[in-house]
TrEMBL record:
It comes from Acorus calamus (Sweet flag). Pathway: Amino-acid biosynthesis; L-tryptophan biosynthesis; L-tryptophan from chorismate: step 4/5. PROSITE patterns: IGPS (PS00614). InterPro entries: Aldolase_TIM, Indole-3-glycerol_P_synth, Indole-3-glycerol_P_synth_dom, Indole-3-GlycerolPSynthase_CS, RibuloseP-bd_barrel. One of its GO terms (biological process) is L-tryptophan biosynthetic process. This is indole-3-glycerol-phosphate synthase. Keywords: Amino-acid biosynthesis, Aromatic amino acid biosynthesis, Decarboxylase, Lyase, Tryptophan biosynthesis. Its EC number is 4.1.1.48.
């Protein structure tokens, strides 16, 4: 069945999880569209036909576009989400079954409505974000769609030819831990946050990155979200081009493979994936693309259920434990100890996974606490970027100079 024979209302785009990167570069006759408001991938009676069509399209595109994996192959094709899609479930229903409360987009569409020349804002539970993370994700969904229109995946793949070589992010963390016998530092280049506002008015990303490196940081994290954190991919690129030797983590709210290609083209060596946002099939697919691009994924969790989900995925090298409650934004570093106890901690040690402590780390005692819990790296931003001399701030955080 050719897509050109479908009516506009019956076309689907698998833009989430299983087919998003290929859809970006596929010819129009291969494009499969998701119903915009609900995110339904397939409807009852049509879903199996749509998925078979997707498989054929993916195989064909994989031949035409080396470097884009076919997500419908191997274990991904057999995972539970695909079977649930075949039964007509929406992406939010699948996410909810995995304990994910963050909805990918407004279930009832945007709140703006137009009557003639007038605009009305009709808010309800279906078009109002429940918390700041959901608001960020909804905005990111629109932002990425616009960015993809300006710069296609084909253009990004071409840019990869001139991208700087990937550096060993995991290796840098291990080397720092062995050298200092303290958690390796991923120092964050961040101008602002939704909860704290502007953290540093005289913000020079390259200067801050250089100070972090001088102070003993093993790696750097660079915020690229513009609306909520006042970051940019240009900051990431500027730091890489400035000759900073520390491997770079692209700190972005990733929901689409396009963002991975963009991050790599700007010089990233690692990316952040958030389990509170991404269902298992998305994490599997995105980490598969990361492997092809040479990127390492830092998969962030907040609670036991997310930790169990991530430990059930093969090939994970880095797990970040965020001590911040996504609903209340309260921070409790004992969350790290709770998630690393018992069988979970044992599984992490057996598999050689590096755990990164995130949020709420301000003093040497905080660092000692999470290290005793099993953390081998920490990601710290606010307490360092606000210092007039971030390199001295690092020494204060660890209680000693870790640069030597």
């Amino acid at each position: 069945m050719e897509a050109t024979s479908m009516s506009a209302s019956s076309r689907f785009s698998i833009s989430r999880g299983i087919c998003s990167s290929s859809a970006a570069t596929a010819p129009a006759k291969r494009r499969l569209d998701v119903t915009p408001a609900s995110g339904v991938i397939g409807r009852r009676g049509l879903s199996q036909r749509v998925l078979r069509f997707a498989v054929r399209a993916q195989r064909s595109e994989a031949k035409d576009s080396p470097g884009i994996p076919s997500p419908m192959s191997d274990s991904i094709a057999n995972c539970i989400e695909v079977r649930e899609w075949e039964m007509g479930k929406t992406i939010d229903e699948i996410a909810a079954s995995q304990g994910i409360t963050i909805r990918r987009r407004p279930p009832t569409g945007p709140p703006q409505h137009y009557v003639g020349p007038f605009e009305f804002r009709l808010q309800n539970e279906g078009n109002t974000p429940r918390n700041i993370l959901e608001e960020i994700i909804w905005n990111k969904d629109v932002e990425v769609s616009q960015m993809k229109e300006r710069r296609s995946l084909v253009m990004l793949k071409k840019a990869l030819e001139n991208a700087p070589p990937v550096r060993d992010f995991v290796g840098a963390l291990r080397a720092s831990y062995e050298r200092t016998d303290m958690p390796a530092l991923i120092a964050e280049v961040k101008k602002a946050s939704p909860s704290r506002g502007v953290l540093r008015e005289d913000f020079d990303p390259v200067q801050i990155a250089s100070a972090y490196e001088e102070g003993g940081a093993a790696c750097l994290s660079v915020l690229t979200d513009k609306k909520y954190f006042q970051g940019s991919f240009e900051n990431l690129e500027a730091i890489r081009n400035a000759g900073i030797k520390c491997p770079l983590l692209c700190k972005e709210f990733i929901i689409d493979p396009w963002q991975l290609y963009c991050a790599r083209s700007k010089g990233a060596d690692a990316v952040l994936l958030i389990a509170a946002v991404l269902p298992d099939v998305d994490i599997k697919y995105l980490t598969k693309i990361c492997k092809i691009l040479g990127l390492v994924a830092l998969v962030e969790v907040h609670n036991e259920r997310e930790m169990d989900r991530v430990l059930g995925i093969d090939g994970i090298q880095l797990i970040g434990i965020n001590n911040r409650n996504l609903e209340t934004f309260e921070v409790d570093i004992s969350n790290t100890k709770k998630l690393l106890g018992g069988a979970r901690g044992e599984a992490i040690r057996e598999r050689g996974i590096i755990v990164v402590g995130e949020s709420g780390l301000f003093t040497p005692s905080d660092i000692a606490y999470v290290q005793e819990a099993g953390v081998k790296a920490v990601l710290v931003g606010e307490s360092l970027v606000k210092q007039s001399d971030p390199s001295k701030g690092i020494a204060g955080l660890f209680g000693k100079d870790i640069s030597k």
